[in-house]
Design a protein that fits this description.
- The protein contains 20 helices and no strands.
- The chain is mostly helical.
- It is globular, with a radius of gyration of 23 Å.
């Protein structure tokens, strides 16, 4: 299977998950809108979801796969199974302990980490009785957090099993498992809307839905692992040299691989000081997660095993070629997506969310945040391309320093900009930190001689930028022409049809320009059309 085919397998499965995630978020916006219950759910879900993104989307794999692959190669399947049992037993014990402690001390965690803004919340007497009080907002956030916290344990164990599947080059099950979360929450929301449940009840039911989804996702990858002929068993935890090495690598890897999610978590914690800001950030996060998930996660999951194998075999030229083509692939898909999301965020948000409890007043705020997030999209994906270059060589120190610098910059910028331009400041801070992180990661590779930029990458990257900007110019002109269709007063079907025209024409123009200028590999494109399997 070619590198492109592997990207397509993981990216395609992630794309399906993101599409259903759109459906989930649209239904949630309709049911909860931008308000205290939506804020409480998003704040409570962000903490365990942070660990899902950190572990399940490649960070745990970055530490586990090289060590597991080494055990498999040097000690055979029995030795690899022993290592997997050590990891599983220790991880299970730690997660049970952490979960119990978190459940007990959840009120303290909500006040200090998850939603510090609720600790200083003051009720407005002029707001009337229809507004949820600060005490009630705090209570439901604690309740939702307690229900959903075990999801963290499920996702961490799932990450380990996914790492085993990826080491055996079985990518599909781990990539498609997150779709179960969307299926279950869509079902919960559908029933709640049909039954006419109140917002607090909907949030409560969704929290239980998240927990059920966690167990379902874990069960799915465990079944896939057993079908692959491998299994793990629970043993009494033992401190071994291999386990110590894994923990030394896993901590920095989680921090490095999850910097985007860490920045989003920090942003939401700061946003808790303003009612509705958390929901605004969450609704804006979903549209740009589509290209980020499809491209970034696919690259992060597939590139590391490919690089590790090439480096262990001493095929340095192949490793350099793989890195350059991966960056080329990332820029080819994310730059036009970033341009489009920056130019037309408001029509997109209006069609996606503006119904039910999500009123017209919320659309401009969410659209503004989406436009700022879009500017950082290429950087977030580029970081996914650069980090495997370190992890494949078991170097976590260098990228950890870069990550800590960018995370610190994000916190400082978020605190400053939030008081100036509210949630837009948090989005801008996240984007700036993303570009800083990508720049530092690339500089480290280049300075150490671990990345050689070839002429083909420079040429195609420049042509991708040109094609994207020309596409953006056409989009602006088309928006002027379709202005009457895109007005808020127009029927939603008319607005949706206008967006379909904009997106379809933009894609056609971009790919035509890319093929005409050579930004896209014509030979590869023709081979795909002929259903061949070109190696890249």
């Amino acid at each position: 299977m070619s590198l492109l085919s592997k990207f397509a397998t993981v990216g395609g499965a992630t794309l399906v998950s993101r599409i259903f995630g759109f459906g989930r978020e649209m239904m949630m916006a309709s049911a909860l809108g931008v308000g205290p219950v939506a804020d409480a759910f998003n704040l409570a879900f962000r903490f365990p979801n942070l660990f899902r993104r950190l572990f399940a989307e490649g960070a745990f794999n970055a530490a586990f796969i090289p060590l597991f692959a080494r055990s498999l190669e040097e000690e055979g399947e029995e030795g690899a199974r022993g290592f997997a049992n050590e990891v599983f037993s220790t991880l299970f014990t730690i997660l049970v302990g952490v979960t119990v402690l978190a459940m007990i001390f959840m009120p303290f965690l909500v006040k200090t980490i998850i939603a510090p803004g609720l600790a200083v919340c003051i009720d407005d007497p002029a707001a009337g009785g229809n507004v949820i009080s600060c005490a009630a907002r705090y209570d439901i956030t604690v309740t939702f957090s307690r229900i959903m916290f075990p999801y963290l344990a499920c996702m961490s164990l799932m990450a380990m099993v996914s790492g085993i599947l990826n080491a055996f080059r079985r990518f599909f099950a781990a990539a498609v498992a997150p779709t179960l979360l969307n299926f279950i929450l869509i079902g919960v929301l559908g029933w709640a809307l049909w039954d006419g449940a109140d917002k607090a009840t909907i949030g409560f039911l969704m929290s239980w839905g998240v927990l059920i989804a966690g167990f379902a996702q874990l069960a799915m990858v465990v079944v896939a692992m057993r079908m692959a002929g491998f299994s793990v068993a629970l043993r009494w935890p033992r401190w071994t040299k291999r386990l110590k090495r894994l923990l030394v690598l896993a901590g920095p890897a989680a921090l490095i691989g999850g910097i985007t999610q860490i920045n989003l978590f920090v942003g939401q914690a700061i946003a808790s000081f303003k009612p509705g800001a958390v929901s605004t950030l969450q609704y804006a996060d979903r549209p740009y997660q589509l290209p980020l998930g499809m491209v970034g996660i696919a690259i992060g999951v597939v590139l590391l095993p490919e690089l590790a194998r090439a480096l262990k075999a001493g095929r340095l030229r192949e490793a350099q070629h793989t890195q350059n083509r991966s960056l080329e692939f990332a820029l080819f898909l994310t730059l036009p997506a970033a341009v489009a999301l920056f130019i037309i965020p408001e029509p997109i948000i209006r069609v996606l969310y503006e119904r039910g409890a999500f009123d017209a007043a919320a659309t401009p705020a969410v659209a503004a945040v989406l436009g700022l997030y879009a500017l950082g999209l290429p950087a977030f994906v580029m970081a996914k391309v650069f980090t495997p270059g370190y992890f494949a060589r078991e170097d976590t120190r260098t990228p950890m320093i870069a990550t800590l610098i960018s995370a610190g910059a994000n916190i400082v910028l978020s605190l400053v900009l939030f008081w100036l331009i509210a949630e837009r400041g948090i989005a801008l801070a996240t984007t700036i930190a993303g570009w800083l992180n990508a720049g530092l990661l690339f500089a480290g590779l280049y300075r150490k001689g671990l990345w050689e930029i070839d002429r083909e990458l420079v040429k195609r990257s420049a042509l991708v930028v040109l094609s994207s900007l020309l596409m953006g110019a056409v989009l602006v002109l088309e928006m002027i022409e379709l202005g009457d269709w895109l007005r808020p007063q127009s029927p939603v079907t008319t607005q949706a049809f206008a967006i379909v025209i904009l997106v379809s024409s933009a894609m056609a123009i971009y790919f035509a320009l890319a093929l005409a200028t050579g930004a896209a590999d014509r030979k590869l494109f023709l081979a795909v059309l002929k259903r061949k399997k070109p190696q890249i």
